[in-house]
Amino acid sequence: MTIGKLTLFNSMLKFEEKYKHIELKETKYLDIKQFEWNGNLSDIELEVFNKNGIIVIDKFQKNNNDLYSNFEKYFGNIIPQGKDLSNQSIQVKKKQGGKTYFESSRSQPLHSDGAYSTNYPKIIFLNCITQSKVGGESLILDGNKLLEFLEKYKLLNDILDKPFKIQRWGQVITKPLIYENKNSNRIEISYTPFLDKLIGESDRDEKIFAIIQRYINNSKNHQYFKLRSNQLLIIDNTRYLHGRRFFEDNEERCLERVWFNGE
User: Fold this and answer.
1) What span, in angstroms and rounded, lies between the C-alpha atoms of 227 and 32?
2) Which domain holds residue 44?
């Protein structure tokens, strides 16, 4: 059995259609702990982040290109991005003729950043440069709730550390989607729907993946919030899935993204 591109694509289309609506009827607001930027992260802010896996820094000011490197002492090395892997950060914004979710105003399905790679980030910064007036809310799913769901139905041990072959843009890697981090003794998640093909070791593995996918795409399991300009979201990419709600084509929305390896 193979979960192919058509199945994944149809799932993403359903997700997009749901979040074209203005109202968020089934999705709960996420009240994220916020701190005002004072030039550095305090012990309290780090403690809250380590506990909750997500915080917002308000009135964040990026005064120079090297500012993000100051955070490496907390979150490990910055993972280079861009086509030539030379950029400390990249901007997530709509582009004329953009074909990917990344470059469009379309609703973006929930995902972990870099989950199609073995060198994926553990920590993500999303620095809000410009926010759309209507739409553009960030969608969040707490992976710990997903793990509780799988444990409740006695599926977690069946999928834990199970490798999947992931095909994207002609490249194939093998990695688990849900795995135990031996250093932290935490169960972590690395999930993306942006694939050409996903192949499990057995039919049962792929059926469990389909159950996971349905849970992730169910808006009742989502929370949302809306970043304002000059707010920085710091998020644990191994716990939370994130996405975006549709915004109008005539609006501007720009987030600057930075990846840290968490080591």
Assistant:
1) 11
2) 3-21+29-58+87-260
